[in-house]
């Protein structure tokens, strides 16, 4: 009898987040599930790894099909620890999310959820990050269900190229999703706003805040456009960041004295 | 009179590290320098940003040409804070480093130093990360001097494309550097080793450790090969991570019910 595939699930909002519980629920009949998720929220921790603090793993629950753990680390730590210590082997798929809040455009650089998927890819495992364009901890994830199942099925059946993971963003929970849209990364940036406040006696301090600015609001083929227009964006990310074209144009640097 | 360019310098080993002091020293006659560096070591913090802790900035010293600050955040925080609150404007160049230890191949995903350069690029500023293949805090950086000056001059004269930063790695301090080599990113990975230890009464915990494995040790055109063969590798990184080719091959997902 063919054994069910094994899916490793992580996120950055911690094992307590509704998003990861929903993700497990959506795919639990398709595979055996092992969850290794951060003990504490790790939003905006990017691809950090924990090298100066000890890591503690805790098994939360276990049944025939699903085992839950938390680890006091980042999503990248969780994926590494799961492969090397919990599973002692590679899973068939890494899913990360569902994040509370979007991770499109350059937000993926800051996102722990996307880093969880990239870490899977670095380990040679097909990996997908899922995010919902809604920061509400009680957001309704139900409209993402069929799309997540479809993408999971597709990736299990046709593994991704070695260097590629998928970054999937869903529209706001109140939007009726029109379908999947295969997208490129939006050219945009976060415009920071540092909020200055005063400590009672220790002087000024700042809170990092900001808003996302889209440099190409009219383009119809990128992930921000897709999400804002009611589609679920599917962005293939290649972990080889080399700009091969620009390499050629600075090749002459090798000859400069 | 033409004003000197303005260079923002950061790193991830903190303002106390020898590497950043050397970097400032190497380029101080080429530009006005503002340093905004982490107060504490931020190695392996990747592109983390600090959103749940207040940020405190401290001016350490100032003379005609060089101003030093530390910030209790990550390299990405330092670049953001420098642009928006310290300089109130964009510098002409962001330099990050010199890191104590290499940041080639996939190590760039974990590196705070490389993230400092990427953050500069996200803000539309030409940016370069420098790392030395030597973890010794007393390492000799002197052999990197002329290469750093050459690269800095090149980038000031011919700004990088909007989406591209440079990740530069120097060989071990004891190696005579043969020259610059324009490189692609090495296909490799960190193979983790979790060291299990026991707390007196609280049970098992783990230290994340590991070694780098090169999947293509014989390739002569990538950054690990260059550094191991005595060259300073110059890797152009594009912040658009979209895999355009693979996009086409999953376009049919849009039609699947």
What report would you give on this structure?
Two copies of one chain form a homodimer. Chain A is α/β, with parallel strands linked by helices. Chain A has a single domain (6-186, 217-255), classed as Stationary-phase Survival Protein Sure Homolog, Chain: A, CATH 3.40.1210.10. Helices cover 24% and strands 31% of the residues of chain A. Chain A contains seven helices and eleven strands. Chain A has helices at 18-27, 75-86, 107-110, 112-122, 145-157, 223-228, 244-249; strands spanning 6-10, 32-38, 57-62, 66-71, 93-100, 127-132, 164-170, 180-182, 188-199, 203-214, 232-238. A nine-stranded mixed sheet of chain A has the order 3-4-2-1-5-6-7-11-8, with helices on both faces. In chain A, helix 1 (18-27) crosses helix 5 (145-157) and helix 2 packs parallel to helix 4. The longest helix of chain A is centred in the middle third of the chain and has 13 residues, at 145-157. Chain A is globular, with a radius of gyration of 19 Å. Chains A and B meet through helix 2, helix 3, helix 4, helix 5 and strand 8 of A and helix 2, helix 3, helix 4, strand 8 and strand 9 of B.
List keywords for this structure.
homodimer; alpha/beta; 9-stranded mixed β-sheet; two-stranded antiparallel sheet; 11 strands
End-to-end separation of chain A in angstroms reads 66 Å
Number of strands of chain A: 11
What topology, given as strand order, has the largest sheet of chain A? Answer: 3-4-2-1-5-6-7-11-8
User: Which architecture name of chain A does CATH use?
Assistant: 3-Layer(aba) Sandwich
Assigned CATH superfamily of chain A:
Survival protein SurE-like phosphatase/nucleotidase
- Basic shape of chain A: globular
CATH topology of chain A: Stationary-phase Survival Protein Sure Homolog, Chain: A
SSE sequence of chain A, one letter per element? EHEEEHEHHEHEEEEHEH
Strand fraction of chain A equals 25-35%
Give the total of domains of chain A: 1
């Amino acid at each position: 009898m063919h054994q069910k595939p094994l899916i490793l699930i992580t996120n950055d909002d911690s094992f307590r987040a509704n998003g990861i519980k929903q993700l497990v629920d959506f795919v639990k009949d398709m595979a055996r599930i092992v969850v290794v998720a951060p003990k504490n929220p790790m939003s905006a921790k990017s691809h950090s790894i924990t090298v100066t603090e000890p890591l503690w793993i805790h098994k939360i629950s276990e049944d025939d099909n699903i085992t839950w753990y938390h680890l006091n680390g980042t999503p990248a730590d969780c994926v590494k620890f799961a492969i090397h210590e919990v599973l002692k082997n590679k899973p068939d798929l890494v899913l990360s999310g569902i994040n509370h809040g979007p991770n499109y455009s350059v937000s993926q650089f800051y996102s722990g959820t996307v880093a969880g998927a990239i870490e899977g890819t670095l380990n040679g495992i097909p990996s997908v990050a899922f995010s919902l364009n809604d920061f509400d901890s009680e957001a309704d994830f139900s409209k993402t269900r069929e799309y997540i199942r479809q993408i999971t099925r597709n990736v299990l059946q046709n593994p991704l190229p070695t260097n590629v993971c998928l970054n999937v963003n869903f529209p706001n929970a109140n939007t009726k999703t029109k379908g999947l849209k295969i997208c490129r990364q939006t050219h945009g940036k976060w415009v920071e706003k540092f909020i200055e406040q005063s400590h009672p006696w220790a002087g000024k301090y700042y809170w990092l805040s900001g808003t996302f600015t889209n440099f190409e609001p009219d383009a119809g083929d990128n992930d921000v456009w897709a999400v804002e227009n009611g589609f679920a964006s599917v962005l293939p990310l290649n972990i080889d960041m080399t700009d091969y074209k620009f390499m050629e144009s600075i090749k002459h640097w090798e000859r400069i004295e």
